[in-house]
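hey can u run this one w/ 9D3 bound, need the structure tokens asap thx
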Amino acid sequence: MRIDILTLFPEILEGPLRVSLLGKAIEQGILTVALTNIRDFATDRHRTVDDEPYGGGAGMVMKCAPLFAAVESLSDCNSLDRVILLSPRGRRLDQAIVRDLAATPDLVLICGRYEGFDERAAQALATDEISIGDYVLSGGELPALVLVEALSRMLPGVVGDFESVETDSFYDGLLGPPQYTRPPVFRGMETPEVLRNGNHAAIRRWRRKEALRATRARRPDLLVNLTKEDQRLLDEI
Ligand code: 9D3
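ok here u go:
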């Protein structure tokens, strides 16, 4: 998969892209991420990328021309099939969107700054507008990173087999169960006996029940499509 990211602050993204699972995916060539500085496509003496909003008001708006030129410069290496604005006005990102985008061979992500984009960029340049949630950030760079990390985990070979099998087919759609590691007792606090006695059927059942308990308590909105067995486990609690 190839992702082009257009930003006024490529430095925000450079470090995180080099590290951990994401860094490895890029190093192994499973994922290619190319950063483009939008300012490189401003043509005036001051390399202007923003301007005052028509109609007045606080803040500045990102100009169309550098954005369009930056996107068009990618046409040799990117199909431009999906051009995504990271914007607080976008659809809120979720795993279904991540899954859909991960099936696209190449993406363009455009990070907003200031008060946002000229609406003509949203209309004529972008195919999608995505937000990562209802809180105010200073720009689209961290949201782009969130999206890239979520996408990278969907690519074959990025996440280990054990982890993906466990999370996708077993606990899918629920919060995870509580987890413990050594020592068995820490400051008087015990780990559940069932997790240490080697009865794998009992462990599976305990984990499913605790995943259901946590989901009902914290995220009841996620409790859909329950099996009869899930309903029975919930009734036991
Ligand atoms: C406080 C200014 N707001 C007036 C209604 C609009 C606004 C413009 C630009 C708010 C934030 C931003 C900068 N944010 C992003 O570019 C952004 C973002 C976000 O702030 N939250 C969640 N997802 C995203 S994606 C891009």
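Residues 86-88, 112, 115-116, 131-133, 135-140, 143 surround 9D3 (CB under 6 Å). anyway lmk if its weird
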